[in-house]
Amino acid sequence: MKTLFKNVKQLIQVREETLQPLKGSEMQELPVLDDAWLLVEDGKIADFGAMDTLPDFEEVMEIDASGKMLLPGWIDSHTHLVYAGNREQEFVDRINGLTYEEIAEKGGGIVNSAKKLQETSEGDLYLQSAKRLEEVMKMGTTAIEIKSGYGLTTEAELKMLRVIQKLKRNYDLPIKSTFLGAHALPPEYKEDKEAYIDLLINEMMPKVVEENLATYVDVFCEKGYFSLADTRRILKAGRDLGLTPKIHVNQFNAIGGIQAAVENNALSVDHLEVLYPEDIEALKEGETMPVALPSCSLFLGIPYTPAREIIDSGLPLALATDYNPGSTPSGNMNLVVSLACIKMKMNPEEAINAATVNAAYAMGILDTHGSITKGKAANLILTEAIPSYGFLPYSFGANHIDSVYINGKKVQGC
Ligand SMILES: N=CN[C@@H](CCC(=O)O)C(=O)O
Ligand SMILES: [Zn+2]
What we know:
- By secondary structure, this protein is an alpha/beta fold.
- It has two domains: 2-73 and 370-410, Urease, subunit C, domain 1; 75-363, Alpha-Beta Barrel (TIM Barrel), CATH 3.20.20.140.
- The chain is built from 15 helices and 16 strands.
- The strands form two sheets. Strands 1, 2, 3, 4, 5, 14, 15 and 16 form an eight-stranded mixed β-sheet that branches. Strands 6-7-8-9-10-11-12-13 form an eight-stranded parallel β-sheet.
- The structure holds N-(iminomethyl)-L-glutamic acid and zinc ion.
- N-(iminomethyl)-L-glutamic acid is lined by residues 109-110, 113, 220, 248, 251, 296, 322, 324-327.
- N-(iminomethyl)-L-glutamic acid binds next to helix 3.
């Protein structure tokens, strides 16, 4: 089955190849092709060009994209989309003056979600999560990473990861799973953190690997959660079992997590709301992608990741949602791209590059996704008729998506 998009006002993020993420000033370049066509065959981008070069294709389904833009679908490289229930009460508590840390100290936060998840059946958890996945696909997300970390027991962590595995089987978009057993200390281990880390390393991780349930290993490296020494220990154990690190660092405090991540060849370091010059220097030493999560900053009222400092020092940057019940109950990548421009002073080109090419790198799928490149998956966003691509972040909060395609197939309901 072939699909031909014709009269596309602009094809955005057109690249012959994407071997490396985009760094520093490269992020300002967003290659586009005006008045274009694009052919999809067998779920892949087969060819594209300017309208005055359009060949006479036979047996194609034609889509007239006059006035509309076609771009690679958003790639969300950091989410906690599998969770049970919600934490609306904590949202109200924060409105009334408590901080995220104070709520966690009172037994709320991650352990609150863990309690809910432990009490939820695998079937119900799947249904809640599938609904969220469909919601974000309609908003243009065409590849996603999902973490465990709301289980905090062997059984519940495996339950989460099996739900992710079932989502992978039932949905066509790339889904990568990350084992985040080191998300918080369960209350029963409050006095014995080492015992929980032993359980995580000696029981949970081997089972996760045996059942092939995760590609990445994550740690919440933060004061009051997992220390630098804990992080190093868990990353090493994960690497020994073949799990690549991809970790939460520098959300509230910088405690050396970036250095540990780079030393362990982490694929990404995520959050970075607090960033010191030595963190930037450490990132320059490796291939680890910094990932900013601006909708978390918006929701918690914490600082935004200093994108200008990162990009202007020659580094790459990716954007993701952090979709989770506590700090970011939103999986809207369109809002993330807008916030990156409005609050982090990224220009539209940088933000779109960060949510496509660099996001694909942060998910380990840059060779197959993230750009309009021949042979890559036809995971695409077709916008409504809009004046320019900059209009997407500019008109924040609005939905200008006409339709979303995954492997060339239209996502229903958008
Ligand atoms: N910071 C750690 N984990 C999540 C929040 C988890 C929660 O509050 O449930 C995050 O990335 O923001
Ligand atoms: Zn997170």
